[in-house]
Amino acid sequence: MLLEDLAVREAAVTSDAVTAHAGALGGRAGVVLAIGTGSVAVGIGADGAYARVDGWGPLLGDDGSGARIGTAGLRAALRAHDGRGPATSLLNAAAGLFGDLERLPARVGRDGNPARTAASFAPRWRAPPTPGTSWPRPSSGTRPPTWPRPSSRRPAASPRTAARCPWPSPVG
Questions:
Q1: In the Cβ-directed half-sphere of 142, how many Cα atoms lie within 13 Å?
Q2: Which uninterrupted H or E stretch holds 31?
Q3: Which residue from 3, 30, 114, 153 lies 20 to 30 Å from 123 (Cα-Cα)?
Q4: Distance in Å from the first CA to the final CA of the chain
């Protein structure tokens, strides 16, 4: 339908991470890290190899995103509110942004985009905690996400690491 209205022969449908890489690097080798409400890294190697990390959405991925950081902060604030966690300045920050914390679940989903609403709380993490409070800690048995350490060995081929650049590239 759109192709009928435009004078083009081809159109590509792809993720915003791929278009960000193409726009920022023009198909040259390099990595684009897009962090906002979600998070994803897209890279093209000098040999034209294509790789994408994360970008799995707010339920299954997007580690390091505004939504993930904001959600962690809101959970810490609610644990402090319930008396299940340590006192934290995030409690007052959450109440200041969202009002009555008893109504927070309804407020987070009200606009139909809970990830965006949670992400709006992420900047509150920049301020240091007030004296006598602590940063929230992960519940027992969990560890914060970590990126793989660089290695001189190339990882085993998989559809995500062995793919070629998905658009014409001067590198590959």
A1: 7
A2: strand 30-35
A3: 30
A4: 32
The model's pTM is 0.60
pLDDT at 94: 92
Neighbours of 163 (CB within 10 A): 15
* Strands ordered across the beta sheet of 39-44: 30-35, 39-44, 49-54, 163-164
Give the residue from 90, 31, 94, 38 showing the smallest Cα distance to 64: 38
pLDDT in tens, 49-78: 888 899 888 788 888 888 888 999 999 999
Residue labelled with tokens 């995103």: 65
Long-range contacts formed by 84-91: CB under 8 A, 24+ apart: 85/136, 86/133, 86/134, 86/136, 86/137, 87/132, 87/133, 87/134, 88/129, 88/133, 88/134, 88/135, 88/136, 89/127, 89/128, 89/129, 89/130, 89/133, 90/124, 90/125, 90/136
Q: Tell me if residue 95 falls in helix, strand or coil.
A: helix
- Per-residue pLDDT tens for 113-158? 888 888 888 887 654 455 555 544 544 444 444 434 444 444 444 4
- Mean pLDDT, range 83-99, rounded to an integer: 90
